[in-house]
Amino acid sequence: MYGTHHRDAVESATVGKTNGRRERLRAETTAEIKRVALELMATGGPDAITLRAIAREMGMTANAIYGYFATRDDLVTTLINDVYTSLVDTVDTAWETAPAQDPAARIQAWACAFRGWALAGPEGFRLIYGDPVPGYRPPAGGAAPDAAHRVCKGITALAAAAWPHAEHRYADSDFSWSDFDTGLLDKVRPAFPELPPAAVALALRIWSHLHGLISLEIYGHLQTQTLNPDKLFREELAQLIRSLSMTPQG
Fold first, then answer.
1. DSSP labels for the chain?
2. Which of 110, 121, 157, 240 has the lowest CB atom count within 10 Å?
């Protein structure tokens, strides 16, 4: 009887190790598929993301790669969710690391983290904010609803932090809740019930300023204008902080 129990335990442990190894290999292959997809996009644009092209780059058969992603759209959805989540994790960490009592420092930390993230992975920035993947159909609710919600809240948090200092500049703005998309308001109003419409408009202004300058840099439009895009970004960020009636750090 002891021998039977011992043999069963050994067999169970062996099966567990085999399953664990199989799961690890699958996870590694999945990660490689996503990495190759972004590399193809970086060199060939969004048109280059096809399962057959990825399989060819990895030395796999097309049929084998379908065992990981049933369709190209499934892969693109996963990529968008991964990239979006990476972005929001990066900026949220920067925000939380900066002193809570220093809104200027928090805004600067968030903005610099956003730019650093974009420069470290420009193909990811282009995937979620630039080049649409031809023919891609996102699932109902969007490709990355949770991450998109967090980004909206994070951007609004920038305005919420600045509002006590900047309110006198924008309080008389002629904005009402009817000026905004209901989807946006559903995301931000529950998190910031005290903010007026003018503050939400300010959040969009801040976002437009940061996103616009970073987009110019990612797409290479600043290369012929400045030899020091880092200095330009930091000066523009400092001016943005001053426009919010705060003193920039550094």
1. -HHHHHHHHHHHHHHHHHHHHHHHHHHHHHHHHHHHHHHHHHHH-GGG--HHHHHHHHT--HHHHTTT-SSHHHHHHHHHHHHHHHHHHHHHHHHHHS-TT-HHHHHHHHHHHHHHHHHH-HHHHHHHHSPPPTT--PPTT-S-HHHHHHHHHHHHHHHHHHHHHHHHHHTT----GGGS-HHHHHHHTTT-TT--HHHHHHHHHHHHHHHHHHHHHHTTTTTTT-S-HHHHHHHHHHHHHHHTT-PPP-
2. 121
Domain locations in the chain as residue ranges = 1-70, 72-250
The end-to-end CA distance of the chain, in Å, is 74
What rounded mean pLDDT belongs to the chain? 91
Single out the residue of 142, 141, 94, 144 nearest to residue 124, CA to CA. 144
CATH topology classification for 1-70: Arc Repressor Mutant, subunit A (1.10.10)
Model confidence at 233, pLDDT cuts 50, 70, 90, reads very high
Instruction: Look at residue 65 in the predicted model and tell me its pLDDT.
Output: 92
pTM over 0.85: yes
Rounded CA separation 234/47 (Å): 34
Give 54-96 pLDDT, tens digit per residue.
Answer: 999 999 998 999 999 999 999 999 999 999 999 999 999 999 9
Instruction: Compute φ and ψ for 27, nearest 5 degrees.
Output: -65, -40
Fold of the domain built from segment(s) 72-250: Tetracycline Repressor; domain 2 (1.10.357)
